[in-house]
Specification:
It contains 17 helices and 17 strands. By secondary structure, the chain is an alpha/beta fold. The protein has two domains: 193 residues, Aspartate Aminotransferase, domain 1 (Alpha-Beta Complex), CATH 3.90.1150; 239 residues, Type I PLP-dependent aspartate aminotransferase-like (Major domain) (Aspartate Aminotransferase, domain 2), CATH 3.40.640. The protein has a seven-stranded mixed beta sheet with strand order 4-12-11-10-7-5-6, with helices on both faces. A hairpin with a 2-residue loop joins strand 13 and strand 14. It binds pyridoxal-5'-phosphate (PLP). Pyridoxal-5'-phosphate binds next to helix 5.
């Protein structure tokens, strides 16, 4: 029995089946992960947008190691220095208000919803207008906010106070506003919904609508935030600022932490006893987040995400000409979706087998969320794998010139490519695991 089978057997026996796992991953470094049997993969999921600075970034590892050896947890009954520093940093990045810390994206959105309800309480306002096809989490309130029936099915009755409009259709939002409406909640790019960007005019229209009607504008930046789209926060591309937004996923580079970040209007709505979380903003979680922000800033990862996103997008767009079933490329920066006119499950599984991890979303979209410091040769390698798997499964349709053109836009230095294990080696399980000292000591 392989090590992977051994882990899978124990897992399936004792862990509730909320996911359908296939690989057992044991080590990660930058854009690569290794499975329990030594096979290496190029990771274009990055923990579903958690590893924005790459797996086990030495700066984040060192910050957590140093902090866990000094103070792990004392509860929020006491001031802790890292939490104060992190709130100051986030407030300086956007909105200039205050933060509430928790452990996950669902909890961060729950905090936004509670903030909005408390803010509107005396005026009898509590209803939040969300978007169809959105995703905000799996707690009961955030599942109710989520605009996908499949997330709510079987858990009814859902908590009340949520209505759903269509993304990019301002009139559909306006039509839902009533005297109970307190806020509008939107992802600037819907991730789980299929990598669907909100148009700039829609975001600007929402801001104006909220201002005109006395509503709060709330953004869910859990997946699209912290550099993923080439801006610190995805809402910034449209030039608008919400009244508050949620963060989680990449904030701690894998150390669980979520945050509700507010502007001045909501900064003092929570008062002692109104909201809380035992593990919210522990010293190590905040150390991980502070180190993550340092890495994004010092390594220029916003610009890198834009540049790498352009390269990946150009390469993927070349496949529209080449393959009859590829219909579009969506998203911004390094949050990209390759849309087919049919389910992508087989394609995603084939790519995984030859060494590239991506994730199917909304059934027909291959979602890609590589680390923001992905190298050019890794992009090239991934594009080659996607090309070969599309050709294998769907066959090519375009004349030879179109392919030559597509290859030209995938330009990446050949020399770089030689430094990394080739996908064939990955598939054969020949690539070595990262050196122990590197992985553990840095
Ligand atoms: C946009 C968005 N919001 C909220 C969540 C929920 O985050 P968590 O799983 O950390 O609760 C997710 C998770 O995928 C997400 O993509």
């Amino acid at each position: 029995m392989s090590k992977t089978q051994e882990i899978a057997e124990r897992f399936d026996r004792y862990v509730m089946h909320t996911y359908a796992q296939q690989l057992a991953l044991v080590e990660g470094r930058g854009t690569r992960v290794w499975d329990a049997d030594g096979k290496v993969y190029l990771d274009f999921i990055a923990g579903i947008s958690v590893q924005n600075v790459g797996h086990c970034h030495p700066r984040v590892v060192a910050a957590v190691q140093e902090q866990v050896a000094r103070l792990m947890h004392v509860s929020n009954l006491y001031y802790t220095e890292n939490q104060a520093r992190l709130a100051e940093r986030l407030s300086g990045l956007a909105l200039g208000g205050k933060c509430f810390f928790c452990n996950s994206g669902a909890e961060a959105n729950e905090a936004l919803i509670k903030l909005a309800r408390l803010w509107g309480h005396d005026a009898g306002k509590y209803e939040v207008i969300c978007m169809r096809n959105s995703f905000h989490g799996r707690t009961l309130a955030t599942a109710a906010a989520t605009g996908q029936a499949k997330i709510q099915k079987g858990f009814e009755p859902m908590p009340e106070g949520f209505a759903h409009a269509d993304l990019n259709d301002l009139a559909s939002v306006e039509a839902l506003v009533n005297d109970k409406t307190v806020a509008v909640l939107v992802e600037a790019i819907q991730g789980e919904g299929g990598v669907i960007p909100a148009a700039d005019e829609f975001m600007q229209g929402l801001r104006k609508l909220c201002d005109d009607r006395g509503l709060l504008m709330l953004c869910d930046e859990v997946q699209c935030g912290l550099g993923r789209t080439g801006d610190w926060f995805a809402f910034q591309a449209s030039g608008v600022e919400p009244d508050a937004f949620s963060l989680a996923k990449s904030l701690g580079s894998g150390y669980p932490i979520g945050a509700a970040v507010s502007g001045p209007k909501l900064a003092d709505v929570f008062t002692p006893g109104r909201h809380a979380s035992t593990f919210g903003g522990t010293p190590p979680a905040c150390a991980a987040a502070l180190a993550t922000l340092d890495v994004i800033e010092e390594e220029g990862l916003l610009a890198k995400a834009r540049r790498a996103g352009d390269l990946l997008r150009e390469g993927l767009e070349g496949f529209i000409e080449l393959f009859p079933h590829v219909v579009s490329v969506r998203g911004r920066g390094l949050m990209l979706g390759l849309e087919l006119d049919q389910p992508v499950k087989e394609l995603v599984e084939r790519m995984r087998d030859v060494g590239l991890l991506t994730v199917a979303t909304a059934e027909t979209v291959v979602r890609m969320l590589p680390p923001l410091n992905v190298k050019d040769n890794e992009l090239e390698e991934a594009l080659d794998i996607i090309h070969d798997c599309l050709a294998e499964i769907h066959g090519e349709s375009a004349p030879a010139e179109a392919e030559a053109e597509a290859e030209a836009v995938e330009a990446a230095p050949e020399a770089d490519a030689a430094e990394e294990p080739a996908p064939e080696e990955a598939a054969a399980g020949e690539a070595a695991a990262p050196e122990q000292e590197e992985a553990k000591a840095e």
